[in-house]
Amino acid sequence: MTTTTTPTLDRPPIIAVPRQAWHHGSARLLWPLLALGLILLYNALFTSGFLRIELRDGKLFGSPIDILNRGSPVMLLGLGMTLVIATGG
Fold first, then answer.
1. Nearest alpha-carbon partner for 52 in 44, 71, 37
2. Alpha carbon 78 to chain centroid distance?
3. In sequence order, what are the beta bridge partners of 60?
4. Domain for residue 8, yes or no?
């Protein structure tokens, strides 16, 4: 009599992610982004100079430019902290 053995795999099994998980995450993100878009649209239509950008003396001025200038250090700090946490220290 001969016995057969099944070979063992050294790698973990592949787990498939259901499509519903991806759709659930995107649906959760839809409403906040839609609300943000509506607020920006309302302000662009009814607030004078809300999204206006000017070029004076070779420099850009305006609300979006101020937001980007003041937000970039915070963004860089957040990116750095994310990388430190992701790499473990």
1. 44
2. 12
3. 55
4. no
Cα 81 from Cα 89, distance rounded (Å): 10
Quick check: 52 and 43 in contact, CB under 8 A?
A: no
Q: Do residues 66 and 85 both lie within one domain? A: yes
- Is the pLDDT confidence value at 66 over 80? yes
Q: Classify 10 as helix, strand or coil.
A: coil
Distance in angstroms (rounded) separating the CA atoms of residues 40 and 61: 19
Six-digit token string for 85: 């946490």
Contact indicator for 27, 40 with CB cutoff of 8 Å: no
Task: Note the pTM of the prediction, 2 decimals.
Answer: 0.53
Q: Which domain holds residue 61?
A: 52-89
Question: How many domains does the chain contain in total?
Answer: 2
The residue type found at 81 is M
The candidate with the shortest Cα–Cα distance to 43, out of 25, 64, 27, is 64
What is the pLDDT, as a whole number, of residue 28?
86
